[in-house]
Design a protein that fits this description.
The relative contact order is 0.18. By secondary structure, the chain is α/β, with parallel strands linked by helices. It contains 5 helices and 6 strands; from the N terminus they run βαβαβαβααββ.
């Protein structure tokens, strides 16, 4: 699995993901960092990446467009430093690996992480 980190996520995550065997690239190193989220999703889809983000915009775009990809992981915790929640994120990457491969929106929080298979219907 390859992960594309959104601008609102520290590049420090790449080291953790690489140590766990995941490919990783930060948005600041691909294209224009100020590009709209739709461009981020297109880039991820075309490159076979899963988007890792701390905001709700990517999930909303997936819901509004009915897209089947790319998969998006939304981390919904205030302190998103890898040293604080890295273990939780890795556990959920493993837990939802099949869903991410098929196309899913994964929401991770401390109490109840969950998956919604794409496309998201209303």
């Amino acid at each position: 699995m390859k992960l594309l980190l959104d601008m609102n996520v520290s590049p420090d995550w790449c080291e953790l993901f690489a140590a766990e065997g995941y490919g990783c690239v930060h948005r600041s190193s691909v294209g224009c960092p100020e590009a709209p989220d739709r461009e981020l999703l297109t880039w991820a889809r075309e490159g076979g990446y899963v988007v890792f983000t701390h905001d709700l915009d990517s999930g909303a775009i997936l819901a509004n467009t009915g897209s089947e990809s790319p998969s998006v992981i939304q981390i919904r915790i205030q302190d998103i430093h890898p040293g604080t929640v890295g273990t939780l994120v890795i556990e959920n990457l493993r837990r939802f690996a099949q869903e991410l491969d098929a196309g899913a929106l994964i929401s991770i929080d401390r109490e109840n992480s969950r998956a919604r298979i794409l496309p998201i219907s209303s």
